[in-house]
């Protein structure tokens, strides 16, 4: 029995060890599989990137070719235009030479008397221009001589006006000083005294207003009043003012 139990335990150990080895193998296989999958994914992404880069390269090459073709066409057009311009310049030069030749032929064909007539016409025109200039200058001189006395008169009148204005200012100042001197002197005793009206104010407090000094001096106080005294003082002031 003891031997049988030992065998069972040893067989169990072996089985456990085998199971562990199997697990380790499975783990290793799974890891390798995951590694392979990752490598394949990386390969696929690299292939995609390469394909995209190739596409970009093709697009760039296409654009480059298009630009080169456009530049070539432009260059050809420019060369054509340059050729046309050169041709037009040559044609213009030819036409100018033809015109010069025609003018020379006409000049040789014109007789001597016609040339003399043309020269006479030119000299006559020059003489007329000279006469016209001389006449204009003479007229301008006459105008200047006629304007000179008027200018002198204007300057003289302006100086007279200025001197008269100065005299007027001096006279106005003198008048002002004379007015100040002409005011009559009034002594303080002759000046009318100001009357303070306190009738309304005293009535509020139940007192009679004080009598004016002039009313005290008079026998009949009812005849004189503060308002009459004020009017008389105003009359004295207006009469004392100089006209």
Summarize the structure.
The protein is mostly helical. It is about 85% helix and about 0% strand. It has helices at about 1-110, 110-180, 200-205, 215, 225-240.
What do these coordinates show?
- This protein has 243 residues and is an all-alpha fold.
- The protein has a domain at 24-76 and 113-182.
- The protein contains 5 helices and no strands.
- The N and C termini lie far apart (170 Å).
* Shape assignment: elongated
Cα(first) to Cα(last) distance is 170 Å
Which stretches are poorly predicted, pLDDT < 50 over at least 5 residues? 215-227, 236-243
What is the structural class? mainly alpha
Strand proportion, as a percent range, falls in under 5%
Helix content: over 70%
> Mind telling me the C-alpha Rg?
68 Å
Report mean pLDDT, rounded to a whole number: 75
Q: Give the helices and strands as they follow along the chain.
A: HHHHH
Largest sheet: none
Question: Secondary-structure map with pairings?
Answer:
Elements (H helix, E strand, L loop, with lengths): L1 H108 L2 H71 L16 H6 L8 H5 L8 H15 L3
Observed structural traits:
243 residues, mainly alpha, 5 helices, elongated
